[in-house]
Design brief:
Strand order of the largest sheet: 1-2-3-5
CATH topology of the largest domain: Transcription Regulator spoIIAA
Radius of gyration: 21 Å
Strand content: 15-25%
Number of domains: 2
Shape: globular
Largest sheet: 4 strands, parallel
């Protein structure tokens, strides 16, 4: 630790893969979950920003408990990886793409709540897979992070529409412009899906830079910006 500090190392990532003993045993990894947490605590105590790599397939804890365990150990960021099978590897069960998106979305929500940043989701084609064998199985997608963020937005808007009893009629969704792509989703599927689910005549997305990032306001169609601000 002292050598790292003297050398100017400010951040270290722990290749933990899991913080749960049963999960590590299933993967055939010789260390235990407490060692991973101890490594994070030691880095945090030494003034080095600690991060950890986690395989999302191997999380048995509820997302909130998982996130709180990482935060209590001092983790400040995490990289989430659904398991992939590379060419030449023994076949292992993997999540479907839809399941990987859903599991990762729930983890991101829980990690956000406790202040742990999600630095990456999935393998990056031009970084992690340049010199590796071809991906033979598993939920690989070059835009997995975008798919996960879209799923998170869809669940948020769906929950707000349900809370407001939005069945039928026309409604507006107000967000920051930087969040529009994530809200609309892959191939702009989110709004049509929600419109159909709630039998809405229309569901418009309105953006305004005065709204903070990740802010969400749902109001009946025709609501003015002043009316929208009054509920912030």
């Amino acid at each position: 630790m002292r050598f790292w500090r003297v050398s100017g190392v400010s951040s270290v990532e722990v290749l933990g893969w899991s913080i749960e003993q049963a999960a590590l045993r299933r993967m055939g990894i010789p260390w235990n979950g407490e060692r991973v947490l101890d490594a994070l605590r030691a880095l945090d105590g030494a003034g080095i920003v600690p991060g950890v790599h986690i395989i999302v397939d191997e999380i048995d804890l509820p997302p909130q408990d998982f996130a709180q365990s990482l935060r209590a150990a001092g983790a400040q960021f995490v990289r989430l990886f659904p398991r992939l099978v590379l060419e030449g590897q023994e076949h292992r069960s993997t999540l479907s793409l839809n399941d990987a998106i859903e599991v990762s979305a729930k983890l991101c929500d829980a990690l956000d709540e406790v202040g742990v940043k999600v630095a990456r989701i999935g393998m990056q084609p031009m970084i992690d897979l340049v010199e590796t064998p071809r991906v033979a199985g598993g939920p690989h997608h070059p835009a997995l992070r975008s798919l996960v963020e879209s799923q998170r937005w869809k669940r948020r808007v769906r929950a707000e529409l349900a809370r407001l009893g939005c069945v039928g009629g026309s409604w507006q969704v107000f967000i920051n412009p930087a969040d529009e792509t994530s809200l609309r989703g892959h191939h702009n599927q989110t709004i049509p899906e929600l419109r159909k689910r709630f039998r809405l005549r229309n569901l418009d997305v309105r953006t305004d830079p005065l709204l903070p990032r990740a802010a969400l306001v749902v109001r009946p169609a025709g609501a003015t910006f002043q009316e929208m601000q009054s509920v912030q």
